[in-house]
Write a structure and sequence with these properties.
Blueprint (H helix, E strand, L loop, with lengths): L5 E4 L4 E4 L7 E6 L10 H19 L3 E6 L17 H9 L3 H18 L15 H13 L3 E4 L2 E4 L1 H6 L12 H7 L16 E6 L15 E3 L3 H11 L3 E7 L3 H14 L7 E7 L2 E3 L2 E2 L10 H6 L11 H9 L7 E2 L2 H18 L2 H8 L2 H8 L12 H19 L4 H20 L9 H18 L10 H17 L3 H13 L2 E6 L2 E6 L3
Parallel strand pairs: 3-4, 3-9, 9-10, 11-13
Antiparallel strand pairs: 1-2, 5-6, 6-7, 7-8, 11-12, 14-15
The chain binds one RNA strand through α1, α6, β9, α8 and β12.
Length: 515
RNA sequence: GGUGACGUGACCGAGUGGCUAGGUAGAGGUCUGCAAAACCUCCUACAGCGGUUCGAAUCCGCUCGUCACCUCCA
């Protein structure tokens, strides 16, 4: 399976050709959302980027297993907090089951990313559904000497692990000594830890804590980073191909994940390739829950956030995100979104030309024009030049994707291809400059790139009922003028759409055909 | 303080040591009953100052500015 897809690996800080561990299988894990509140636009970037990645990997012929987890347990309010889970806290406030809170936000999240055109992952594991796996992992880590128990809680022993030469900090370029020097060791509730760098694998739950499970150490709950190590291992193996997430997860989350996985005596980096998407900014500042400058996905779709002047459709948002490279920050503004909306629609309009172009390309006029091309001396009267140009335009699109999934570059090239196709359409006889086969290839590539790989689908703007009403107005007009051939024509056309026109005393109405 | 990233034209946003990014907006034109779409042409760039080089927006240094991670965050 030879292809030139290169990906930037955070571990090595460089791009390298992507080579699966066990081709044609590819394992991909993306850190999903924490479901204790509604996701914002920033949370959508990873799913969209990884949706394109997995779509493209499949296009390249790989058999992909794409895992995107739901973290519904294990995230504390903060270090100082004696362990009340965020979900548990909300559940207590609303007087509902924690699982209701998690389920509600999970469903909302999934409907949002689906609207954004993201295909469902192959597996969507929940942290709460993998407590046993996490406990087993902790036992393994303890057995290997990289964790210790204190008062029913278990902590990962970062200094011990690092002393064993495992390289804590290798992903994020941290040096343990520097981390220690810069750490804030004045936080309350940290007394149990031997080192400020240690992190919880298991926390004993206090009486108030609702979400709790039995374990060999205490009734409690798993630590913040463990779920991803345990679940990726369960479904993708000790080592797999690609692990992704937001740049802000690199440290400490992903660093801890690698440490946990390695501490289970698997001397790998958990994943071969670590990919990190950059942040979405608002006025140049990272969109984040804690800063409060976030726009939720619902607000974007409905236009209910004051930062933005209006609503933007899911496909506009998807296009907007893909018009930037995933490792760049992208600033969200009305102007940017409006430009994206127009660009997106331009791409959709192109989609509608493809069949017409191929049809025209096979028309007798064009075929004739091809054969009677004036023959210049020494030049074959063929379409070689035009075909090569067309193929170059297509190749540029794929070159963009191959270059670390540079969708910005790919889309730019796609517009170049579209300009060519639009040019053909403006003057159909120019189709004679390319062969029917090359045109077919190009139009297929366009469709594949836009819909299958970038996942941009046509978002109908017109409402069917409004269009129907319009048609019935013409119908009525035809009746008044007794243009019965027109009347019959409209009736027949609507019948084909499963609509019957009803002339009632009260006026013209319609109904679904019951045939 | 430590680590890292960035500063591109009206806006968004790619990129490479010498060859058009692209989208949106703006100007002119073709087309057109009007309009739209489309096509053609044009327009405003690479923060500043030095250095390397035949040549740098692209490499190096400094300055200024912005941001991110080091605490939950995609």
């Amino acid at each position: 399976m030879q292809h030139p897809l290169s990906l930037y690996n955070t571990l090595t800080r460089q791009k390298a050709p992507f080579e699966p561990l066990n081709a044609p299988f590819v394992g991909v894990y993306l850190c999903g959302p924490t479901v204790y509140n509604e996701a914002h636009v920033g949370n959508a970037r990873g799913p969209v980027v990884f949706d394109v990645l997995t779509r493209y990997l499949r296009f390249l012929g790989y058999t992909v297993r794409y895992v995107r987890n739901i973290t519904d347990v294990g995230h504390l309010e903060g270090d100082a907090d004696e362990g009340e889970d965020k979900i548990g806290k909300i559940a207590r406030a609303r007087k509902v089951e924690p699982m209701e809170v998690a389920e509600g936000y999970t469903n909302l999240y999934q409907s949002h990313v689906e609207a954004l055109g993201c295909l469902p992952p192959d597996i969507t594991p929940r942290a709460s559904g993998h407590i046993i796996e996490q406990i087993q992992m902790i036992e393994e880590i303890i057995r290997n000497g990289f964790a210790y128990e204190v008062n029913g809680s278990v902590y990962f022993d970062v200094p011990a692990y690092n002393a064993a030469g495992r390289g804590y900090g290798k992903l994020s370029n941290r040096v343990v000594e520097e981390l220690l020097a810069g750490s804030r060791d004045n936080l309350a509730g940290q007394e149990e830890k031997r080192s400020p760098l240690d992190f919880a694998l298991w926390k004993r739950a206090d009486e108030r804590h609702i979400m709790r499970w039995p374990s060999p150490w205490s009734d409690g709950f798993p630590g913040w980073h463990l779920e991803c190590s345990a679940m990726s291992r369960k479904y993708l193996g000790d080592e797999f191909d690609i692990h992704g997430g937001g740049l802000d997860l690199m440290f400490p989350h992903h660093e801890c994940e690698i440490a946990q996985s390695q501490a289970c005596n698997h001397p790998t980096n958990e994943a071969r390739v670590w990919m990190h998407n950059n942040m979405i900014t608002v006025n140049g500042q990272k969109m984040s829950k804690s800063v409060g400058n976030f726009i939720t996905i619902s607000q974007l779709f409905e236009g209910t956030n004051t930062t933005l002047a209006q609503a933007y459709s899911p496909m506009t948002a998807r296009f907007f995100l893909l018009q930037a490279h995933y490792r760049s920050t992208v600033d969200i503004t009305d102007e940017g979104l409006q430009a994206a909306r127009k660009g997106y629609r331009k791409l959709m309009n192109g989609l509608r030309l493809l069949d017409k172009l191929n049809e025209a390309s096979l028309s007798s006029e064009v075929i004739k024009a091809r054969t009677v091309q004036p023959m210049t001396e020494g030049q074959a009267p063929d379409t070689t030049k035009g075909d090569a140009e067309l193929r170059k335009l297509v190749a540029d699109c794929f070159a963009g994707l191959n270059d670390d999934l540079n969708t910005a570059k790919a889309i730019a090239s796609l517009f170049n291809l579209l300009r060519k196709l639009n040019g053909f359409f403006a003057n159909l006889t120019t189709l004679a400059t390319v062969s029917a086969a090359a045109l077919q290839e190009a139009t297929e590539a366009y469709r594949t790139l836009v819909t299958d790989i970038l996942g941009l689908v046509d978002e109908p703007r017109a409402k069917a009922e409004d269009l129907l009403r319009l048609t019935l107005e013409f119908y009525q007009e035809a009746k008044v003028t007794k243009a019965y051939d027109k009347v019959d024509q409209i009736r027949a056309a609507l019948k084909e759409q499963g609509i019957v026109v009803k002339d009632t005393k009260a006026g013209i109405d319609w109904a679904y055909s019951e045939d």
